[in-house]
TrEMBL record, chain A:
EC number: 2.1.3.2
Name of the protein this chain belongs to: Aspartate carbamoyltransferase
Role summary: Catalyzes the condensation of carbamoyl phosphate and aspartate to form carbamoyl aspartate and inorganic phosphate, the committed step in the de novo pyrimidine nucleotide biosynthesis pathway.
GO MF entry, a single one: aspartate carbamoyltransferase activity
Transmembrane annotation, as ranges: none
TrEMBL record, chain B:
Pfam families per record: Amidohydro_3, DHOase
Superkingdom of this protein's organism: Bacteria
GO cellular component, as recorded: cytoplasm
Residue ranges of every copy of the Dihydroorotase catalytic domain listed in the record: 51-235
Protein name: Dihydroorotase
Length: 316, 431
């Protein structure tokens, strides 16, 4: 096994062999989950706290289910309605929780870098469930697993990421993961939603969606947040759908067997045509959700192993 | 008063741009002679080949009095300045409350007189409450001792307000210090746009915002004829505009903080908030461009932009952390990095640290000319050390140079002929 990280804060710090190790393990968990085979001993006796400083239903449920399937004691804390409102700083919140000795801390926060900051102050293993516009590593890993299952490999593929790249942590983590696994990554977005200096990341940049989708193996759509739709970054929802929404005509540019992905939740008719999202021959959106649980199980399993090893070493 | 006679000193002369070994004599708080014999009864100080230069005049120091004395007081700032070879601090008015009335300025002057061991020259705000709506009592404030007028990093967005304030200031010969930054483009940003900002997912501002701010201010100078100093010019794109304005005879000068000369945006690394500054750190290309501009004299003044922040305001997610870094004690050793890298000579560096700020503020100090105040710093430019922020004398320890390898140790600092840092004994030093 080669997975050396103490925390899972981002894809940036993972080596390709660590990514492969994690996805391999997630693959077996995915198979076992389908077969109804349980693994309640893996995290037995361990405490997992989900701290979400930003609203999330899907990711939090996925982490909760993953923890429970592995036998952890899972606790959810809705941070946006708790002591944060009373003026407690992030570090104090972290120290308070740390005193309760959680083994695994799953954290989502609206500020980039906040999860890194918190990880410096706690003894357990921290999993980044999304920090600002920075990273969302488990999403990229579940996307990687989904692609590998659909395409038979996770290298030498041509993959287009389309939509609000500038504000997307999913895009950043995926750009890094897909690049590390030696794929060709194309970014497609209106220039107002494309971050500065992004071409230096080893990606191809397009503002014409039809050109960008030419002959790709995978089309990865991103969610466009409501607050960006009204004149600030793009003129209107309907103009966006016309130019950047995934419909049958645009998808026809991609390879005939290209798959369509979306991290959810979808805005049907804004970034993706409903019929494409529901096309079982093209869309793997539901598989992504399924792989999400398996990837989070694998990530917590591997981090728990490293945590136990570190504790055994400290005790020795 | 005693008479001091420095011998075996490398005299760093920012006027003649020379760096020669010689002697310097101080009597009654003034420099009285260069390369003369020791007067009878003088205390002879053997500098042993160390550099003797005018004390640094640091424009834009934030002393957190009134309002946040736990971050920095006049006493602590004075001690830090003395230890860093800074003999005059020109204080920023962006305190709480801001220094926008003669009464508030009077408070600053009295506190400084009682507490600080170096010269303190206060600045006042250009508009009341730094709100950019009404100009302050520029005339009364000048009479009370304000040396310049600035709203700090609050840009006066209303050009009518700014043009009137500049026109009024011109009639009194008052110096206005601006912060060139387009407020719309830079709103909400905490890093400079580019690869690093995109990698870290932080809200970013284009370096063009500085050029736009400068262009606007230059147009208003052309209109009003006021005396204007840009607090920090940190980007390559702003330099041609600055050069043109100077060539056209406008009364404009420009400064830069030592941090923008020695660090770049990549130094923020894993969200290190001690590297969060206003304006944000720039790209390496920009850094090289401003170093060249400094060496050529296009950028006139190097300052520390000393901004004390307590631990709590820095221990936050990067976006929410307070901006600014302390710099009084690290200004000289950090600036010497440029000298050791061969990018600027010592006399030219001291022109930007001492002579140019003295010219801007019409001060007699800042040079080694007989008849001027004996504000001096004696330092070993080569002595290496690793900075431990806990050893800084500022109340706040928010330095980006914690753990950095630096060269240049201050041996002694004199203000008006009085030793304020370093202890010397006959014929040698025990620093």
């Amino acid at each position: 096994m080669s997975f050396r990280a103490r925390h899972l804060l981002g894809i940036e710090h993972l080596a390709p062999d660590e990514i492969t190790t994690l996805i391999d393990l997630a693959d077996t968990y995915a198979t076992d989950n389908r077969a109804g085979k349980t693994h309640r001993d893996v995290l037995a006796g361990m405490t997992q706290i989900n701290m979400f400083f930003e609203n999330s239903t899907r990711t939090q449920a996925s982490f909760e289910l993953a923890g429970k399937k592995l036998g952890a004691d899972v606790m959810n804390m809705a941070m946006q309605s708790s002591s944060v409102k009373k003026g407690e700083t992030l570090i104090d919140t972290a120290l308070t929780l740390n005193a309760m000795h959680p083994d695994l801390l799953v954290v989502r926060h609206p500020s980039s870098g906040a999860v890194d900051l918190l990880a410096q102050k706690v003894n357990g293993a921290v999993l980044n469930a999304g920090d600002g516009r920075h990273e969302h590593p488990t999403q990229a890993l579940l996307d990687g697993l989904t692609i590998r299952r659909a395409k038979g490999r996770l290298h030498r593929l041509s993959i287009a990421i389309c939509g609000d790249i500038a504000h997307s942590r999913v895009a950043r983590s995926n750009i890094m993961l897909l690049g590390k696994m030696e794929n060709r990554v194309r970014l497609i977005a209106p220039p107002t939603l494309m971050p500065a200096g992004i071409s230096e990341f080893g990606v191809e940049v397009f503002d014409d969606m039809e050109k960008g989708l030419q002959d790709v193996d995978v089309v990865m759509m991103l969610r466009l947040q409501k607050e960006r739709m009204d004149g600030g970054f793009i003129p209107s929802e309907r103009e966006y759908f016309h130019r950047y929404g995934l419909d049958a005509a645009k998808l026809a540019r991609a390879k005939p067997d290209a798959i369509v992905m979306h991290p959810g939740p979808m805005n049907r008719g804004v970034e993706i045509d409903g019929t494409i999202a529901d096309d079982i021959n093209r869309s793997v959106i539901q598989t992504q959700v399924e792989m999400g649980v398996a990837v989070r199980m694998a990530a917590m399993d591997l981090l728990a192993r490293n945590l136990r090893a570190a504790r055994a070493e400290a005790a020795a | 008063m005693t008479t001091l006679h420095f011998i075996n000193a490398r005299l760093i002369d920012p006027v003649a741009l020379t760096d020669d070994v010689g002697t310097l004599t101080v009597q009654d708080g003034l420099i009285t002679a260069l390369n003369a014999d020791a007067p009878a009864g003088a205390t002879v100080i053997d500098c042993d080949g160390a550099c003797l230069a005018p004390g640094i005049i640091d424009i834009g120091v934030k002393v957190s009095e009134p309002g946040e004395r736990h971050k920095e007081s006049f006493r602590s700032a004075g001690r830090a300045a003395a230890a860093g070879g800074v003999t005059t601090i020109v204080t920023r008015p962006d305190t709480a409350p801001p220094i926008d009335t003669p009464e508030a300025l009077e408070f600053v002057r009295r506190r400084a007189e009682v507490e600080a061991c170096v010269n303190v020259l206060p600045m006042a705000t250009l508009t009341k409450g730094r709100e950019g709506r009404e100009m302050t009592e520029i005339g009364f404030l000048l009479d009370a001792g304000a040396v310049a007028f600035t709203d700090g990093d609050h840009v006066v967005t209303d050009t009518k307000v700014l043009s009137r304030a500049l026109t009024y200031a011109r009639s009194l010969g008052a110096l206005v210090i601006g912060h060139p930054q387009d407020p719309g483009l830079s709103a909400g940003a905490c890093v400079t746009s580019g690869k690093f900002a995109s990698l870290r997912g932080l809200p970013a501002v284009s370096p063009m915002a500085e050029r736009m701010g400068l262009d606007r201010d230059i147009a208003l100078l052309e209109m009003t004829g006021a005396r204007y100093h840009a607090d920090q010019i940190t980007t390559a794109r702003a330099l041609p505009a600055l050069e043109r304005a100077k060539r056209n005879g406008l009364k404009i000068t420009a400064g830069i903080s030592i941090h923008h000369l020695t660090l770049n945006d990549m130094d923020v690394a894993d969200y290190r908030t001690f590297f969060k500054l206003t304006p944000p750190l720039r790209s390496e290309d920009d850094r090289q461009a401003v170093i060249n501009a400094l060496a050529e004299g296009l950028i006139d003044i190097v300052c520390s932009m000393h901004t004390p922040q307590d631990e709590e305001s820095k221990r936050l997610p990067f976006e929410h952390a307070a901006a600014g870094a302390v710099g009084l004690q690290t200004l000289l050793p950090a600036a010497l990095r440029l000298v050791h890298a061969g990018q600027i000579t010592l006399p030219r560096l001291f022109r930007a640290l001492t002579l140019n700020p003295a010219h801007l503020l019409n001060l007699p100090a800042g040079r080694l000319t007989p008849g001027t105040p004996a504000d001096l710093v004696l330092f070993d430019p080569d002595a290496p050390f690793v900075l431990d922020r806990a050893t800084l004398l500022s109340k706040s320890k928010n330095t980006p140079f914690d753990g950095a390898r630096l060269q240049g140790r201050v041996i002694g600092t004199w203000v008006g002929g009085t030793c304020v840092a370093g202890t010397h004994v006959q014929g040698g030093f025990d620093a």
